[in-house]
Amino acid sequence: MGKKRGDGVSESTMNRRNLIKLGTAVGVALLTSAKTAGYRAAGASTVPPAPLPAMDGTADSLLRMQAEIRRALQKPVEQRGWIMVVDGRRCVGCRACVVACVAENVLPPGVTYRSVPEIEFGSYPEVKKYPMPTQCMQCDKPPCLPAANAIAPGSIIKRPDGIVAINYAKFRGRAAFRAAAKACPYKALYYDDGSFYTQSTPALQAYERTVGHDYGHHWVREPKKASGPPAGGGRKCHFCLHRLNAGLLPVCVSTCIGRALYFGDKNDAQSLVNELKEKNKNKILRVRENRGTEPRVYYVTDDPQFIAGFHS
Amino acid sequence: MGKKLPEHDGDGLTRRSILTGGALLGGAALLASHAKLGELAGLVRAAEARELPTGEYDRATPENILYSVCQQCNTQCGIKAKIRGGVLVKVDGNPFSPWNLDPHVPYRTSPFETAAVDARLCPKGQAGIQAAYDPYRIVKVLKRAGKRGENKWMTIPFQQAIAEIVEGGTLFRHVPGEENRKVGGLKEIWALRDPKLANALTGEVKAIMAKKTPAEKRQAVEEFKAKHREQLHLLIDPNHPDLGPKNNQFAFVWGRLKGGRGDLIRRFAVDAFGSRNAHGHTTVCQGSLYFTGKAMSEQYLDGKWTGGKKFFWQADQQSAEFIIFVGVNPFEASQGPTLRAQRITEGVSSGRLKYVVIDPVLNRTSGTMAWKWLPNQPGTDAAAALALIRWIIDNRRYDERYLRNANKAAAAADKEPTSCNAAWLVKMEKDGTPGKFLRASEAGIAPKERRPTSDGKGTYEFDPFVISLGGRLVPFDPNDAKNPVEGDLQVSAEVAGIRVKSAFQLLYEQAAARTVEEWAELAGLKASDLEEIAREFTSHGKKAAVDIHRGVSQHTNGLYNCTAWFALPLLIGSFDWKGGMVGGAAYDAGGGKAGQPFPLGKLHPGKTTAFGVSIIRDGDKYEDTTLFSGYPAKRQWYPLASDIYQEIVPSAGDAYPYPIKALLLYMGTPVYSLPAGHTNIEVLADPAKVPLVVANDIIIGETSMYADYIFPDCTYLERWEFAGTHPSIPWKVQPIRQPVIAPLTETVRVFGQEMPCTLEALLLGIAEKLGLPGFGKDGFGPGQDFLRPEDFYLRMVANVAAGEKADGSDAVPDADDREVELFLKSRRHLPKTVFDADRWAWVVGDKWWRRVITVLSRGGRFEDFARAYDGEQLRNKYGALINLYQEKTATTKSAMTGKPYLGIANYTPGPRDFLDRPVEDIGYDLHLLTKRVVFHTKSRTISNYWLLNFLPGGEFLINTQDAKRLGFKDGDRVKVVSATNPEGIWDLKHGRKKPMVGILKVIEGIRPGVVSFSLGHGHWAYGSQDVVINRRTIKGDQRRSKGLHANAAMRTDPVLPNTCLSDPVGASAVFYDTRVRLVRV
């Protein structure tokens, strides 16, 4: 504790053993407060976003999009309009986005928030194989919402910034989940059954019990409290709301190795997502638009097969 | 058993009982015990907890972030490790690194400003958390308690293990059958200890090998024996002094290895221990590609071909307009995914880039974005290349101006960074094969002359090379930078009674041996496709490239496949040009450059010289040795290659050229990784063949399970390494791996220092016990101790920080106070065993400490984005001669057939055995290939459960047409059998057999006649099976054993049945020349 280093900087804190468990302990404490507080619309982060490096016109588009998020955060939440654009031509099918999501959100087996099915078209040797990244489309008319709320009132809400949010305290049990999952045309909901990847191995590992940040709260999944939220209820993508509020991009976007995923504010005329929509306006589609769901995820593609595959 | 093992019931078991989780149990025991402490910590820290606002996001906070380098595959991407409560909770890409962001942020950017910038990273990289926190990791030294491979173990104290392997003795008297087996320790093998004597003997052995005839050699050996009567006991065989000292009977073998650890291993095994046998795994990856690069980069210096670099070129994907990818899959493998995918997808979607993929199996690179996917017949890669070469030459679409340049001056006059030997004249042998280059004295146009050598210490005989210009012969010096010499390209003539042809002509004749249509038919492709590619390739000036990898090189004709494909960028002269071929450049970490503070190679008192032929017979010619007794030799020799992985264990098994007494295996698993790797089990499981086998591994793996001892290592997230670069990167870089989490292995004491059990602790421990020079007190010289890993690695960091200019102008800036504070704070979770700021500062000294901090705070050193190019050329150039014709290759013979190799690109149908006979497995109707999917690295990602969400058992692919023909359907379970594994099994010994059974997936995207399994599955160790430690059974995890691993079906050589097929020239282990049959189970 407080050992002075050679150069006069104090080494803060404790030995390593204490540190390893600290995260979990904090999480447990906060879980309780989240429970009692119930759902509240997470607004701006309590801490200002960390600064970004200066950039010029050549900067990676990640930095541009991140700057746009910060611009949007300056506005009241109801003026932000989060949307995603998926450039289907650039997806390489690697699932970096899926693993990023699982790690970021501390998801258990069977829950991934997103998936990337791949479909083979054509016959040898004229063959294409398309990956199709998919997730919760944050519909403006989300069919899951009435379905879930009919069973568990207030369990799914539509936020003013466009995100379809789950209230973990209310969205409990299989029945509400089944109703919502059945209503969703995108297979975007997953049930958290309380399991862990390493539970049947010699030891459950600490990384599975670290805090998740869904909807701006701290959540810790504990093996002995398998019935506590978020375990024991439905879960889905929330556009990494907690990261947006910290001035970061959704983790699937920042980690995409083909740069197929784009994110931003549709109410910002200068945003990259609007630029992409405009530039590719004849190649834009939304999946199963005919269902009237008005999804907030837009796909860019120029291959009719890709479109057909998506609608099948 | 307890009674038999009094010496093992001490410290190790006592400690185990404290760690209640059990023996193995690495992560398990450690974290389990911490969990209990953690509950207390929770109460203690309640106050601190309340300080955190509800839901605060702490993963973009600078002090919770460390930058390092991934090692989930060999792409070695930058990583941004996010730590919470000492636990690594998220891994993202490092924005300072060109691997992860495009453009990467300027190097001077503050780490406070990158905390919120997450850059891209592939799925494996992000799952690295699960490689570190693998519940099956080992944390204490394991010693075999049963027979080799029985998987019965006991834990023993680190120092006891070190003492046993150094001292030797009846170490396994507790194992039935080994009661009296005496193991010779390293002490005994380290026979020749006098560096002066080693140096003298090296020279004398060289002289023996230089004698022309066997009789002269015999005479020289007799003289040697008489002269060194007193020292003969130090040699393996006094009658064959060229086998070297007994020291060579210690073999150090590694799998994945980068700088830092590589430098340390060399220091230990070669420079201190004096063994010739320190060998890597290159040939199991893409050996013949590397050794094509070496052959093509040999320079003519001081009268001989020398300095060939073991490397290869890749495409500059960020500026190329056209790329031909052959047998390479950059979206999934091939040093590609995170580094290359975004630049390629950007290129295609912006219209800048068009690319084609030649590969029998559709993959993610060819699946969506490729202009063309051309599924060729496996092993015909050179045929496709020769079709293109023929078309380009016939249509005169090559860069004649570039190719005519015969020396440096001519290239410089054209502002070409490289030259090539296309115009040089080659003498034809009587049988019509090309031999050596024509020399001026032979042509009678200029005399030989004596010239001073480049080091100024001696002289050599220079006989100029010759070109033909308008029918006139012109002598020239390839290194002449003043007088430009250009030559005609198509020359076939007779000079002074000697038939000569230009190198270009030789290439053309190989290409013209068949029509484009005939080549296309051989390759199983359409001539029109090949012509279109050839036209496109020659329509973009210098902005076109060829990018090849294992699919091209891992054949018996691998080197010539690679040579043929690399002839194409030579035809357009796109080497070192923006959008063309890149060679890569890394900051020197070893201290070899002027202005670098710690030249580690020189800071080695008592450094010795290793000599003699190696166990894998690399670098030496059979004919030069005293072992020469006509053809065939007992096993193949490889004068043009090194790191021949498939030769190590089988050669030890055959005791050729001599027996190996102790083998130390680091981060390698030849049994799992090699084609026909099961043949290695036969040797390793038999203590009579290799008396002592020590493994350094993070887990009990498919090969380390056959070891006598396993020393636990730390994962890449807990340790150091210097990752270097890749050929597709135009910037000068040096990514640095450093500990980002506390080590999970036990703490050990070496040289009076506490450190985690790692490779370094093992080597330092042995060095301490043996008294090896260059380690311990004053290990680097007076006042410079080498007691801990950081003593070595921090000096290397300082070298990187210093840059490469003598005046210091290339050094990085000092870290400011804020950055220094962040540096310390962000390491607050690291114990003193891996982070001790006071010692660190002392090791590098005041002058370098803040610069070291600058480098480590950014995960290495990376040139700024704008420095990639100088106009239309690369700034970091290869900048030398490139050999279209390989004279050194042409003057090397196969030790099995006695025939010389061809020095020019050609198509030799494969597969062929060591006696150059075709291998035809009649009745085996399918061609077996492997496939790398982006979710897995060969042997070590099965522990990453997140990745098992995708293809949990891998995939085993077959074309619809074959499935129909054979009556198979999707989901059928089939066994893979081959001519050399008709049973279709892995024989693991002790009655355990694992059948090679896979579940078929029937698809369109694979060439009919081909089946392909994805690598990484079908484990029988690595936590997948039960093991016994300290008499307790640790249950295996069935998720890890799923799927098919069919390497054991791969063809062994008919001449050497304990070895897979190999490329005799480029030394690749052959993965892709086996025919199999599928049997329904």
Question: What do you see in this structure?
Answer:
- The complex is a heterodimer of chains A (312) and B (1081).
- By secondary structure, chain A is an alpha+beta fold.
- Chain A has helices spanning 16-37, 61-73, 96-104, 144-151, 173-183, 241-245, 251-255, 272-279, 304-311; strands at residues 3-4, 10-11, 82-87, 114-115, 118-123, 126-131, 134-135, 156-158, 164-166, 190-192, 233-235, 261-265, 284-285, 297-300.
- Chain A is 29% helix and 16% strand.
- In chain A, the strands form six sheets. In chain A, strands 12-3-14-13 form a four-stranded mixed sheet. A two-stranded antiparallel ribbon of chain A has the order 1-2. Chain A has a two-stranded antiparallel ribbon with strand order 4-7.
- The radius of gyration of chain A is 21 Å and the shape is globular.
- The N and C termini of chain A lie far apart (62 Å).
- Mean pLDDT of chain A is 84; it is low at 1-46.
- Chain B is of the alpha/beta class and 1081 residues long.
- Among the domains of chain B are: 162-283 and 607-712, Rossmann fold, CATH 3.40.50; 398-521, no CATH class; 926-1080, Barwin-like endoglucanases.
- Chain B has 34 helices and 50 strands.
- The two termini of chain B are 41 Å apart.
- Residues 1-53 of chain B have low confidence and may be disordered.
- At the A-B interface, helix 1, helix 2, helix 3, strand 5 and strand 6 of A face helix 2, helix 3, strand 3, helix 4 and helix 5 of B.
